[in-house]
Design the sequence.
């Protein structure tokens, strides 16, 4: 559920980024056309700018399809009709805060609800041992019955036919062909199985915790790098367009700058997505 939700958030962010990339490509194509009309650049430059715009349009169409597919998957899980709009929080606003993932501690793994179930299973297995041992001990039982046996409901008749019976029974186990001891051994084995299952669960959940925390730390570092990369890529694109308009750079410098900006925006969205998924797994690993 969480991964499906975050996948839609990623698809929406990628679609918005694709729209921005297309707008930038179309603006550069317009600038190139103006320069061509003034005789300042060769016709091939306009062709390259148009190819860049076509590529950005293709990326936008693919982003729209991915968004629609991700939205459909989320609608299935939440029970929405396929014509009902569905949205998510803006992925760009889901940036990590300082040491957000470090608030989760390994000791919090013990709060998972699975451990309550495992502890109850272990407790039940230990009770079976006590029951099996009790079957080998002497047992004293008694019963008391009272009533009447008469064809009349009148007082004298009831009193004459009213009685009480009592029975006492003492059972001393001597030999049962090993059935009781076998039950005890089986109960002991069930205790061992329950203890082993708990140990394996502790190791598995602890491994999941450390893996999720490492992924969160890695994603947080990548977000910081990608944010810096987007800023530098935007400055690089602006400088490249200015140099191109001044006749100091070739068009390939501008197209390369556009491609670099697209790559940095994609890397930022993916890093934020990975961070949110790792954070959700951390919450799950600690029973939150």
Sequence:
């Amino acid at each position: 559920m969480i991964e499906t939700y975050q996948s839609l958030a990623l698809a929406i962010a990628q679609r918005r980024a694709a729209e921005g990339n297309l707008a930038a490509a179309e603006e550069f194509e317009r600038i190139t056309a103006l320069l061509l009309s003034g005789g300042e650049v060769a016709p091939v430059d306009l062709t390259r700018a148009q190819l860049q715009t076509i590529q950005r349009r293709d990326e936008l169409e693919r982003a729209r399809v991915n968004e629609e597919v991700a939205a459909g998957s989320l609608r299935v899980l939440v029970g929405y009709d396929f014509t009902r709009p569905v949205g998510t929080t803006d992925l760009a606003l889901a940036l990590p805060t300082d040491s957000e993932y470090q608030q989760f501690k390994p000791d919090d793994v013990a709060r998972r609800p699975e451990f309550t179930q495992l502890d109850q299973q272990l407790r039940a297995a230990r009770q079976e041992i006590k029951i099996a041992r009790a079957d080998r001990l002497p047992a004293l039982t008694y019963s008391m019955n009272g009533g009447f046996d008469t064809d009349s409901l009148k007082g004298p008749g009831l009193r004459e036919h009213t009685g009480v019976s009592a029975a006492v029974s003492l059972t001393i186990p001597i030999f049962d062909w090993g059935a009781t001891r076998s039950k005890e051994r089986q109960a002991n084995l069930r205790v061992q199985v329950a203890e082993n299952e708990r140990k394996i669960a502790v190791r598995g959940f602890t491994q999941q915790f450390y893996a999720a925390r490492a992924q969160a730390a890695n994603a947080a570092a990548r977000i910081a790098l990608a944010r810096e990369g987007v800023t530098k890529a935007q400055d690089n694109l602006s400088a490249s367009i200015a140099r191109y308009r001044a006749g100091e750079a070739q068009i390939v410098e501008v197209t390369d700058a556009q491609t670099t900006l697209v790559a940095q925006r994609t890397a930022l969205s993916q890093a934020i997505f990975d961070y949110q998924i790792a954070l959700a797994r951390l919450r799950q690993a600690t029973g939150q």
